[in-house]
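for ur thesis appendix - Metallo-beta-lactamase superfamily protein. copy paste whatever u need, i formatted it the way the template wanted (i think)
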Amino acid sequence: MPMKGRGTAQLREIDRWEDGVGWLAYPDEKMQRASHAVRVDDGDVWVFDPVDAPGVDDLLAEFGDVAGVVVGLDRHKRDAAAIANRHEVPVYVASWMTGVADKLDADVERFGGTLADSGFKTFRIVDRTFPPWQEVGFYHDELRTLVVPETVGSVGYFCAPGERLGVHPMLRPFPPRQTLTGFDPERLLVGHGAGVTDGAGDALREALLNARKNLPGAYARAFKSMLTN
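the 3d part is after this line
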């Protein structure tokens, strides 16, 4: 099983609900790069950190017209430009993110404390130069939906045994508790693995609270995952 899938993608749905859907383009890859589309109050669809696959456009059309494609992490350019160009919309990048916009072969719009007129409030989760990491989170009050691109995930190498949601291995020693603990979402969408739709707020708080305590088990599991094919 490769870390990152290549070749022909095969769409697999995850996280479907009335106003959105998630998908994996390469279900067998270890990284489990998850993409999401969310329909907001005015009917527009916003696409977060997408990886392209045959059938993605038909899937998006089930929810409405795409208003924009969003990059939530500096390393998550993924296929944002290709999907944005097909739908003739911009790629949205946080105003404080560097080294992203100039690498996207698409029109780029910058955003600040809100994601255009989507209803999503935005906030910095991580912003540092060493090691490089720029991550923005998104929260929609009415939909009670929180999008966290990288800090937490449900994929195996993020989680210690017994965890359904874990903090990224690089952030476990010093998790951004102050930034994320105050949210109580109905659903939590992550950039790696399936989202959490049952007790999402509790799962997030537990992951942040136990990040250091469960660090040995998480690191052992991540190391084992890297060694196995």
